[in-house]
Amino acid sequence: MNTLLDQFSMNAVAWAALGPISEQEKQLRIDLATAYQLAYLKNWDDGIYTHISASIPGEDGAYLLNQFGLCFNEITPQNLVKVNIEGRILSGDDPVNQTGFAIHGAVHAARSDAHCVFHLHVDSVIAVSAQKKGLLPISQHALRFYQDMGYHAYQGLALSSQEQTSLIANLGNKKAILLHNHGSIVCGASIQQAFYLMDVLDKACKIQLLAGSTEDLIIPDDELCQLTYKQLCSDGDQEGQLEWPSYQRLLINY
After folding, report:
1. How far apart are CA 232 and CA 239, in angstroms?
2. pTM (2 decimals)?
3. Is residue 20 reached through a cis peptide bond, with omega within 30 degrees of 0 on the bond before it?
4. How far apart are CA 114 and CA 198, in angstroms?
5. How far apart are CA 118 and CA 120, in angstroms?
6. Among 49, 79, 148, 202, which is most buried by a count of CB atoms within 10 Å?
7. Which residues contact 87 (CB under 8 A, 6 or more apart)?
8. Distance between CA 181 and CA 184 in Å, rounded?
9. Residue 121 phi/psi, 5° resolution?
10. What is the phi/psi pair of residue 126, to 5°?
11. Which tens digit of pLDDT belongs to each residue from 141-198?
């Protein structure tokens, strides 16, 4: 792991292969690759499938995505691929999953505030996405999404232009959406916020599954749910910033 972590340095020799690159993009690549590595440690990966993307400041429509064929634990700052919302590779080695283009390109194009987008197939989240009642407000973790969760019907593997339109409509301005029978999309104003929210969503879904039947559960009333939701969102888009160094230490100490 130490050899891998060497590539996460701002002064890593491996940067030379990318040619001229700004310090800002270097840091973005380090943070995004860290998110991939942490997602692997948390068992959020699905082989070579699913994606985490991050838009590049100052480069309109450009974002970073994983190279198709690499597992999450193989992602480094240098092997991330730069693409645009039309699906064209701007730098890096192909291939890139076409479904990844379809989902991430659509979200980045529609949501300028979504600087980081997680699309994952996490077991706990898929299980809850298959429940008719969706994510229930039975835990403090779930209440973070009380007014911040959309739902999208399953329509098969390929994401058509028509489905892109309906997906974006169902996501609206929310931070997260459950894709029925499929997984989730989580949006963040930063990689740190998106990672934190994905962590909270995973725990909320695990708690719901541990609770068993969705009947006869203690559910706070709507007024209390709304109050708690507002309290949990009080940091705004600074969510995840305080937690990020502790997440990074998980990777450093692994």
Report:
1. 9
2. 0.96
3. no
4. 14
5. 6
6. 202
7. 96, 98, 101, 102, 105
8. 10
9. -115, 65
10. -60, -40
11. 999 999 999 999 999 986 788 999 999 999 999 999 999 999 999 999 999 999 999 9
